[in-house]
């Protein structure tokens, strides 16, 4: 089910929070809304979910505006960033969510069993929901949304607040779960790795405005705007009056190739299997991963570096 926004504005305390001229989320795709803290990502999700009203403009889900309290079952499933559970077991919490969406009792039991098996929570269904670990709670939070099998699934920072091993497993598993239980999925994140690992499409939101939208490959290869480039991990530099974005891995030591820069080495960090060279070109921080056998410059030295890959920015 497509989701579209037209001339949507949200203002709080006299300050604009969102100002979106036109934005579409494609049916059957997973789209990550990516941007820094305070960009308006969660507000956008709440608008799509019908939990807030815009000051102006239209939000349409499958051609219709989402109602707040229209007496009809919602056409979306929402997994909030804060994992809130009622008293009772995991099974009871999942069952209640389905009941509120008017799913018949027999079908509720089937859906709970299916989502529990797929998300690996079958063994904790009868455990008190408020006594789960962070990773378990996040799986249950996701299971509660995915069991709804809604036309639109909304995920607010789906991997926040959990330890690295649990996050690594969820990064691997979540795309498969979305393919199994969801159709159109919209998730918000401030983490670039999450956006690229989980989504097909990317929307870059900065200061409440859409700076880029499209397939993640197209957005990454042609960021155009310096703010977007920096969010995507590019190093932004000026050379002969032109602003350039150098992607991760786009520098090498040696100034034989243009564009070339002088790097003031600050320190070298041993990452275990490779060293990272940290320094500055003017006021811009630069991080270069050194390859096997490359000489390691001394801290405080000045060396030439080349941008072997770069894009021109506006």
What is the number of helical segments per DSSP (H or I, 4+ residues)? 8
Span between termini: 35 Å
Strand order of the largest sheet: 5-6-7-3-8-9
Rg, Cα atoms, Å: 23 Å
Helix and strand run: EEEHEEHHHEHEHEEHHEEEEEEEE
Helix content: 25-40%
Structural class: alpha+beta
Query: What can be said about the biggest beta sheet?
Result: 6 strands, mixed
Total DSSP E strands: 17
Low-pLDDT runs: none
Integer average pLDDT: 91
Inertia-based shape: globular
Question: What does this entry look like structurally?
Answer:
The structure is a single chain. The mean pLDDT is 91. The longest helix is centred in the middle third of the chain and has 18 residues, at 164-181. Strands 5-6-7-3-8-9 form a 6-stranded mixed beta sheet, sandwiched between helices. Strands 12-16-13-14-15 form a 5-stranded antiparallel beta sheet, with no helix packed on it. Strands 2-1-4 form a 3-stranded antiparallel beta sheet, with helices on one face. It is built from 8 helices and 17 strands. With 314 residues, the chain is an alpha+beta fold. The chain has helices spanning 41-48, 90-100, 105-119, 134-146, 164-181, 192-198, 216-221, 226-231; strands at 3-12, 15-25, 30-34, 56-61, 76-79, 152-156, 184-189, 201-206, 209-215, 235-239, 242-246, 251-253, 260-270, 275-281, 284-289, 302-307, 311-312. Helix 2 packs parallel to helix 4 (134-146) and helix 4 packs parallel to helix 5.
């Amino acid at each position: 089910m497509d989701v579209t926004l037209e001339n949507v504005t949200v203002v709080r305390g006299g300050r604009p929070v969102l100002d979106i001229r036109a934005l579409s989320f494609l049916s059957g795709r997973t789209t990550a809304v990516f941007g820094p803290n305070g960009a308006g990502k969660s507000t956008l999700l709440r608008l799509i979910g019908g939990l807030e009203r815009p000051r102006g403009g239209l939000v349409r889900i499958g051609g219709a505006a989402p109602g707040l309290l229209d007496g009809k079952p919602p056409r979306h499933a929402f997994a909030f960033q804060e994992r809130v559970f009622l008293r009772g077991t995991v099974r009871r919490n999942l069952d209640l969510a389905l009941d509120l969406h008017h799913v018949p009792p027999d079908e509720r039991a089937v859906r709970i069993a299916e989502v529990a098996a797929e998300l690996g929570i079958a063994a904790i269904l009868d455990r008190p929901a408020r006594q789960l670990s962070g990773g378990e709670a996040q799986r249950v939070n996701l299971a509660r949304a995915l069991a709804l099998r809604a036309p639109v699934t909304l995920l607010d920072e789906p991997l926040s607040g959990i330890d690295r091993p649990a996050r690594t497993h969820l990064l691997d598993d979540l795309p498969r779960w979305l393919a199994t239980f969801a159709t159109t999925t919209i998730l918000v994140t401030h983490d670039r790795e999450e956006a690229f690992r989980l989504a097909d499409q990317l929307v870059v939101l900065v200061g409440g405005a859409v700076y880029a939208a499209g397939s993640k490959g197209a957005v990454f290869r042609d960021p155009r705007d310096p703010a977007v480039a920096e969010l995507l991990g590019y190093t932004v530099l000026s050379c002969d009056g032109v602003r350039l974005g150098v992607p991760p891995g786009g520098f090498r030591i040696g100034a034989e190739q243009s564009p070339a820069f002088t790097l003031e080495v600050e320190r070298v960090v041993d990452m275990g299997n490779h060293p990272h060279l940290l320094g500055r070109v003017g006021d811009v921080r630069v991080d270069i991963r050194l390859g096997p056998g490359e000489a390691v410059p001394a801290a405080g030295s000045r060396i030439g570096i080349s941008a072997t890959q770069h894009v021109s920015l506006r």
